[in-house]
Amino acid sequence: SFELTQPSSVSVSPGQTASIDCSGDNLGNRYASWYQQKPGQSPVLVIYQDTKRPSGIPERFSGSNSANTATLTIRGTQAMDEADYYCQTWDTNIWVFGGGTKLTVL
Amino acid sequence: EVQLVQSGAEVKKPGESLTVSCRASGYTFTEFWIGWVRQMPGKGLEWMGVIYVDDSDTRYSPSFQGQVTLSVDKSINTAHLQWNSLKASDTAMYYCARLHGGNPIEYYFDFWGQGTLVTVSS
Q1: CA of B115, closest CA in chain A: separation in Å?
Q2: Which residues does B24 contact at the CB level (< 8 Å), separation at least 6?
Q3: Do A100 and B45 touch (CB under 8 A)?
Q4: How much is the mean pLDDT over chain A?
Q5: Nearest CA of chain A to the CA of B14: how many Å?
Q6: Is A64 exposed, middle or buried (0-12, 13-18, 19+ CB in 10 A)?
Q7: How many C-beta neighbours within 10 Å does residue A39 have?
């Protein structure tokens, strides 16, 4: 079965750039999406189809996908960006989530 | 405004049945798939299955095939997640989400319900 691997945690200082990787076999040949989940809240879509931002998502969020790795980048990270982040893709009738990355802003 | 509103929290005993609901509004219900996602306490997101509202075409995760049933009631714009016999290990938050995209490889979950907490305990 297809699997997506994320680091369990990433730390970043306020105002700096945070990068969260998501790896999977030939992931670059599929689309990746990213979801933000804050404690006690539902997930929110922040990036879809590798690089696109939904309406209302700040420009500091961006995405890329190549070879075996998709990356979520947050430029000028703010305290409000502290959350769990999940990548997701599709593989022949299976929707797959990564294990999630806890982003700490300190 | 697209909204998915789920039914309230449930406390059940092992062996009992349960249906969780997800009522959609703000878009044409029959033109999209609805997905269900499990989140066990302190854990990550797990895809359970999706259902195409118009014809009830359903795809299940191998992990949940035979364990749950997805259905829709188009007359009231509502999707359902059903268990026939709950286990303690079904204790989790369950989310419905709308699946958006032109073809499967493009699909992503663009709107999510608020979640339904299911607790199964004797």
Answers
A1: 7
A2: B2, B3, B4, B34, B77, B78, B79, B98
A3: yes
A4: 96
A5: 26
A6: middle
A7: 7
- Residue B35 and residue B53: Cα distance in Å, rounded? 10
Q: Which among A78, A85, A71 is positioned nearest to A37, based on CA atoms?
A: A85
Task: Please indicate whether, in this complex, the C-beta atoms of A30 and B107 are within 8 angstroms of each other.
Answer: no
Mean pLDDT of chain B: 96
pLDDT in tens, B41-50: 999 999 999 9
Residue A59 · residue A99 · CB < 8 Å: no
Name the residue in chain B with its Cα closest to that of A43.
Answer: B112
Alpha-carbon gap: A101 to the closest alpha carbon of chain B (Å): 9
Query: Three-state DSSP class for B76?
Result: helix
How many Cβ contacts (< 8 angstroms) between chains A and B?
63
Contact B38, B115 (CB under 8 A): no
Q: What are the counts of helices (DSSP H) followed by strands (DSSP E) for chain A?
A: 0, 9
Inter-chain residue contact A48 with B110, CB threshold 8 Å? yes
